[in-house]
Design brief:
The chain is 34% helix and 23% strand. It is built from 7 helices and 12 strands.
């Protein structure tokens, strides 16, 4: 009985070792061919985001960003937003308050607009990546009818593989500390049996991407 058990365990160990050697030698194909990204990650991201029905705003300054956000929020007096230190925009809450808009409690189902930053923007698909943490509430991007995402040009990366490679390089703790990870590809959409496309059924009906060029 002991000899049989030893033989089985030895075979399993051998198989595991061989598999490890095979995986080490595999050259994984990229999910998206590099040549499809073109010369500009920014241009590619904008093109793909628009295909997903996102509304892209090219932003030239902090003032321009705040005024654009205010115009999207209008005529509402309340908004959901990440904490200021989690946004790539200084003193947004103060600016909104000076213009009669209050950042309300997280998860308020009656608020129409949510403002967030992003963890990354994927050029290949036009998708946005979010890692929920303190001050970066997931519901802010998923609950309101309108989602405003603030994106810096240096946050645009080639594809999902690149994002995972960055996370792996920086250590698993960066993933473990996140309550969840969400990838958003345009407004929420669904279709009934008649194949009629409906936006906003299970999430935001509009996604505005404010792309900071400054």
């Amino acid at each position: 009985m002991t000899d049989s058990r030893t033989k089985i365990l030895n075979k399993l160990r051998s198989a595991a070792t061989n598999q490890s050697q095979v995986e080490h030698n595999i050259k994984h194909a990229a999910m998206v061919p590099p040549e499809s990204l073109g010369n500009s990650l920014t241009d590619k991201f904008i093109t793909e985001a628009k295909k997903l029905s996102c509304i892209v705003h090219l932003i030239s300054s902090e003032r321009h960003a705040k005024e654009t956000i205010l115009s999207i929020i209008a005529p509402d007096a309340e908004v959901l937003a990440w904490q200021d230190d989690r946004l790539p925009l200084k003193n947004l809450r103060k600016f909104l308050a000076e213009n009669g808009v209050v950042v309300t409690a997280s998860g308020n189902p009656h608020v129409r607009v949510g403002v967030t930053g992003v963890d990354a923007a994927l050029a290949a698909t036009g998708s946005l990546a979010f890692c929920s943490e303190t001050g970066k509430d997931r519901l802010t991007s998923l609950l309101p009818e309108v989602h405003i995402a603030l994106v810096c040009k240096n946050q645009i990366i080639p594809d999902l593989e690149s994002w995972f490679a960055q996370k792996k390089k920086s250590g698993l703790e960066n993933i473990r500390k996140s309550g969840n990870i969400v990838f958003i590809s345009g407004p929420s959409r669904t279709a009934d049996i008649a194949m009629e496309l409906i936006l906003g059924m299970h999430g935001p009906r509009e996604v505005h991407i404010l792309l900071f060029e400054f």
